[in-house]
Specification:
Length: 232
């Protein structure tokens, strides 16, 4: 028997690359802008500001790629180890694993007979997949993808960082701090809103949150640049 299905569009499949993309773009824009603002506030020349922005773009993109790759690889390794352990348990103690799966469905509200039937049928269909999903919480939808996360993070970081770099090149050094700050705040608000739309969350709250923290970060680096620029 087949059922007529109502097709729903969910956004959970975007979690892996969306998290890396939003983090990369935000970091690229904010960290490079903060660097530009700090260097410019210290009284540096325009060429020094541009070099600092370019160095921040390259170093940050490579750092993001490496960090994401290592982090997500560790997650993938942990998931793989859990699945191997679970596969061994299914091979060595299948009855205990069936009882364990039955108990999971009992805890979710099914009665004993139905929970047992579900456990038996899912075990017959794909025992490891059933335990991975319902016992370990591992799903192919959100499985860690190290290379994907690294590439997305690097590219989006560079995409965000190029904005303050262009502003630093095109703006007289005397106006760099103000111009970069305004452009960055607008960019952060836009990124926050886009991330919220892609993830199905509230736009205003996301935009306000990232803009507020961006303003604080740039204010802090501008203060550091001003203090140490005067001292030097």
């Amino acid at each position: 028997m087949t059922l007529d299905t109502h097709i729903e569009k969910h956004l959970v499949h975007r979690i892996g690359w969306l998290r890396a993309a939003v983090m990369g773009a935000n970091d690229g824009l904010l960290s490079t802008s903060s660097l530009v603002v700090g260097v410019a506030a210290a009284g540096s020349s325009q060429s020094q500001v541009v070099v600092a922005a370019l160095a921040g773009l390259v170093a940050g993109a490579m750092s993001m790629a490496a960090g994401e790759y290592v982090s997500v690889s560790s997650q993938a390794d942990a998931e793989k180890a859990d699945l191997e352990r679970e596969a061994a348990e299914l091979r060595d103690t299948p009855d205990e694993e069936l009882d364990e799966l039955t108990q999971i469905y009992l805890d979710r509200g099914l009665d004993l007979l139905l929970a047992r039937q579900v456990a038996v049928q899912l075990t017959a269909h794909d025992a490891l997949a059933a335990h991975a999903r319902d016992e370990l919480g591992i799903s192919t939808t959100v499985t860690a993808q190290p290379v994907q996360a690294a590439v997305v993070s690097a590219l989006t970081f560079a995409g965000g960082a190029v904005v303050p770099l262009i502003v630093a090149v095109a703006t007289p050094v005397s106006h760099v701090v103000l111009t970069v700050s305004l452009v960055t705040l607008a960019g952060l608000g836009t990124l926050g809103a886009l991330g919220a739309v892609a993830g199905g969350a509230g736009i205003f709250r996301a935009a306000k949150r990232v803009t507020l923290w961006g303003a604080l970060a740039m204010a802090a680096t501008a203060g550091v640049g001003r203090i140490f620029g005067i001292a030097m």
